[in-house]
Amino acid sequence: MEDLNDGLRTPGAIMLGGGNPAQIPEMQDYFQTLLTDMLESGKAD
To answer: Where does the record place the region Disordered (predicted)?
Structure first.
């Protein structure tokens, strides 16, 4: 995150932020299914 300050001093830099990445609905669905299956089976394999 230290390099974010450098962007403020660089002409023409486009600040995209240093926060959380975007959520991808397809991946959210995949993780939900995976975690539900793990919870129901009692296994994490």
So the answer is: 1-20
Question: How do the domains of the chain map onto residue ranges?
Answer: 2-42
Cα–Cα distance between 4 and 22 in angstroms, integer?
Answer: 18
Do residues 6 and 23 lie in contact, with contact meaning Cβ atoms separated by under 8 Å? no
* Low-confidence spans in the chain with pLDDT less than 70: 1-5, 7, 15-18, 45
In this structure, are residues 7 and 13 in contact, taking their beta carbons and an 8 Å threshold? yes
Q: Report pTM.
A: 0.50
